[in-house]
Fold:
Amino acid sequence: MMPAPDRSSLRRRRRALTTPERKDAALAAANRLVSHLCFVRARHLGFYVASDGELDPAPLMMAAAGRGKHCYLPVISDRLMSWRTAPLTFAPYDPYMDDLAVNRFGILEPTWNPHHMTPPAMLDIVFVPLVGFDRKGNRVGMGKGFYDRTLANLHRGFRRPKLIGLAYEFQELDGIDPNPWDVGLDAVATASEWIPVSRGLR
Structure:
C-alpha cells in the first residue's frame, strides 16, 4: 500500500510559486493543449477558477472562447436537489464579458441562475484541479470530494466528459491508492508534458 500523500506540503509548494512562475506554467500548458485533437474537436469545455496556487486554466479558457468554443465554470450550490451526491453543476461563462462572485468557500464562480445551469454530462471536456496525481490517472483533490461525487454517476451508463487534470510537474506522485469513490482522470497536462491515461487521448 502506498503511503498517503501529504496534501499540506504539496499545497505549500504550490502556493510558494512566484506569480511569473505560475503564469509561465499556465501559458505553457495552454500552448500544449490548444493543438491537441481532443481540444480541437471539443465544443463544450468545463474549466475552474484557480485558487490556492492551482495551475491556472485562464489562458486556455481565453483561447477556447477565442475559437468559438463554449466555456463553463463549476458552481457549488446547496440549492440543487442532488446536492449530497452531485454538488457541482456548470454555468456558461464568457471570460471576455461575464463577472464572477465569491461563494461561501471564498472561490469565484458565476452567479447562480437555475435556468443557465448545465450538467457535466453535457460537456465534452472537464479540466480538473488537483493537489497530486499519478500516471494511472489517480488524483488527490482538496478533500471535499466535489468532483468525485458529481462525476461518479457518469460512469454508470451516461455520457461522460473527458477529465483532464492540470498540474505542475512537482505534483506528480509515484503512486496513489484510490478510494472506491474516486473518479480517475483521462489525462494530465503540465507545462512540459501531456500524460495520457485513456487510449482515446494519446
In short: The chain has one domain: 7-196. The helical segments are 7-15, 19-33, 37-41, 58-66, 146-152. The first helix runs from residue 7 to 15. The domain at 7-196 is CATH 3.40.50.10420 (Rossmann fold).
